[in-house]
Amino acid sequence: MQNVVDANNPTEFASLIDAIRGLATKSGLSSERALANRLNVKRHQLRRALHALRESGEIGPAERKRKGGGIRNREGLIQDTNPLEVIEMRIAIEPCLARFAALRASPLEIARIERAATTLAGSDSAAADLKFHKAIAAGSGNKLAESFYTMLRQVASDTRIRICNSRPVCPKRIQQRDAEHRAVANAISSRDADAAEQAMRLHLVAVQKRVIEHLHPLIAAV
After folding, report:
1. Neighbouring residues of 131: CB distance < 8 A, sequence distance ≥ 6
2. Are 84 and 215 in contact (CB under 8 A)?
């Protein structure tokens, strides 16, 4: 007989959540039926615990079954990917988001994109970069694409795949990045979809080059 977890008992419910969290960390989550059997709990109690973990962002808001019946969550994606794959996906997605923003963004969204294109003195460089790109995703008018992009950047921000550099960010690099950002923003402001798409692609190809140089300095020097 399966156990009945008392959701009103904080200790019991926390123990169930910890058990699920441990399984997700090790190998990703399997199907609800398999999880319920493994943890010896009722399905409705399992769903309540899964909902709590999704709300906290630990297993991602959306579930997708993968081959073999398992569920692909953010933890699994982080374990299976790397910085090169992340930038490849960004190159595939973001030029289209810039095109959509040029066609669909409201005047308020365009103003937000233009402001975010320049990194303010004393601000966090990485946060400023993310703010600019997320502003374009929001201005694309495609909620599904915006949500997918948000998930992609969440995966990319994980310390296990993020490229860490102990040295301060070079001011010239920030200036160059801002120039690339402003080229995208200007094209969006001008409602030039082709130019916005091309400017974003050029910017991300430059980012890809720096990722390769950091990961494979000897190859990049050839």
Report:
1. 116
2. yes
